[in-house]
Amino acid sequence: MKETEKKESTGSQASANSLASSRRGLLRGLAAGGLVAGAGLSLGAGPATAASRRIARQSASWTPPNSPSQAEQELFVHGNDRWKMQAQLHPREYADTRTPLVAAQHPWAMIVSCIDSRVPPELIFDQGLGDLFVSRTAGQVLDGAVLGSTAYAATKSYVKLIVVLGHQGCGAVQSAIERKDNPGTPNFPPRLEFLTDRIKDAIPPAGTPNRENLAINENIRRIRNQLLQEPQISPRVAAGTLNVIGARYELDTWIAHKIN
Ligand SMILES: [Zn+2]
After folding, report:
1. Phi, psi (rounded to 5 degrees) for 44
2. What distance in angstroms lies between residue 170's CA and the mean position of ligand 1's atoms?
3. C-alpha 146 to ligand 1 mean position (Å)
4. Which of 33, 50, 164, 168 shows its CA 20 to 30 Å from the CA of 146?
5. Sequence ranges of the binding site for Zn(2+)
6. Which CATH class is domain 65-259?
7. What's the pLDDT tens digit per position in 24-80?
8. How far does residue 139's CA lie from ligand 1's centre (Å)?
9. Which segments are annotated as binding site?
10. Ligand 1 geometric centre to CA of 148 (Å)
11. Which residues bind Zn(2+) (predicted)?
12. Ligand 1 center from residue 138 Cα (angstroms)
């Protein structure tokens, strides 16, 4: 996406939500994908034709990100921008991707995200098969299995970026706040307490303004910082071949952005 388009697309929620804006975004996305040429927008073009064109476009131009910064760019500038503008390409979903992936996969990023049904990483970053390792737990809480999964990803040189992805309105964080404020609640399920226990230290004191959002952000930071200390991860980060960042997805604006 061109720089001018990117600036315009980072505008207000109202503009992101307006039908006019969405249609402009769709047309831009189609133009960027070369789909506007010829009869691509005619009503007579059936699904098979559209799919064929999409495959041709993807195969011709796709090169996986080869550095942490390229991976970040692909997710947050290109992919999420398409999602935000409702101009998704749904890349790498078809036979020309599925068939070669039988033999091997080389995902270039890992997303450690929440289970929330409104925040599927492949959708909000508009990526396809073979692009992302994804680990999902409520509140993107870490346990031995998730740490093992990130360690595995970090041993693969083709993985350039690990993103800890939290989000607006996270039910796991809300539950942790509820639990912290009412520690005496009887019969709180131990399996849920496992989750809230791991989030509680990120929660500011009761009465803090914007408390839930601060807790969501701090939970992201703490998980990112923990991953940065993992023995399979920290040497690669020091060498510049892998990065671990925190990010947050906003349900109301459809924007994914970094949390520092
Ligand atoms: Zn959540």
Report:
1. -80, -10
2. 4
3. 16
4. 168
5. 114, 116, 167, 170
6. alpha beta
7. 444 444 444 333 333 333 344 455 566 665 555 555 578 999 999 999 999 999 999
8. 5
9. 114, 116, 167, 170
10. 21
11. 114, 116, 167, 170
12. 6
Name the amino acid, one letter, at 105: Q
Domain boundaries, the chain: 3-55, 65-259
Q: What letter represents residue 240's amino acid?
A: G
From the list 16, 94, 21, the residue with the least C-alpha distance to 58 is 94
Q: What is the pLDDT of residues 83-129, one digit of tens each?
A: 999 999 999 999 999 999 999 999 999 999 999 999 999 999 999 99
User: Residues lining ligand 1 (ion), CB within 5 A?
Assistant: 114, 116, 170, 172
What's this model's pTM, rounded to 2 decimal places? Answer: 0.80
Cβ within 8 Å of residue 154, ≥6 positions away? 162, 230, 232, 233, 236, 242
Residue 36 CA to ligand 1 centre (angstroms): 38
Gap from CA of 91 to ligand 1 centroid (Å)? 26
CA of 181 to the centre of ligand 1 (A): 19
